[in-house]
Automatic annotation (TrEMBL):
Claim: Lyase is one of the keywords in the record: no
InterPro entries hit by this protein: TPR-like_helical_dom_sf, TPR_rpt
Native source species: Paludibaculum fermentans
SUPFAM superfamilies (UniProt xref): TPR-like (SSF48452)
Lineage: Bacteria, Pseudomonadati, Acidobacteriota, Terriglobia, Bryobacterales
TPR repeat positions: 53-86
Superkingdom of the source species: Bacteria
PROSITE patterns in the record: TPR
Keywords linked to the UniProt accession: TPR repeat
Pfam family, one: TPR_16
UniProt name for this protein: Tetratricopeptide repeat protein
Length: 129
């Protein structure tokens, strides 16, 4: 887990010119394992209302790791919509899986007991049954 978070920090650590949304401070808190504080910093900076996909991704990750799944869905979805970030898509699926919340945008299959996990819509139509 720590390597995954460290990779996220490296990918997101360089702020855009003029950017002052608490991202670096939040990433430092995230790396230290203080997930709730990381989310609080970004919430106070107004990231949720902004359009910085990297900051929205970081907020979604911090909220997911804090166990605040319902709150994490919206910033992760927006990060994916604003900029096709593979990390945001991955975390959105992780948040959905960890919480049992399934967003309409994903054709995510709920498995029956004993059935294998699978993502709907990932196979050609003739192989999906």
């Amino acid at each position: 887990m720590r390597h995954l978070l460290l990779g996220l920090v490296v990918c997101l650590a360089v702020p855009l010119p003029g950017q002052n949304n608490g991202l670096i401070d939040s990433l430092n808190r995230l790396d230290a394992g203080n997930f709730a504080e990381s989310a609080r910093i970004l919430e106070q900076a107004g990231v949720r209302a902004g359009s910085d996909a990297r900051a929205l991704l970081t907020l979604g990750v911090a909220l997911t790791l804090s166990g605040r799944f319902e709150e994490a869905i919206e910033p992760l979805q927006r990060a994916v919509q604003i900029k096709r970030l593979d990390e945001a898509t991955l975390w959105l699926y992780a948040c959905e899986r960890m919480s049992g919340i399934v967003t309409e945008a994903h054709a995510y299959g709920i498995r029956r007991p004993g059935m294998p996990l699978r993502l709907e819509g990932m196979l050609p139509a003739d192989q999906s049954s």
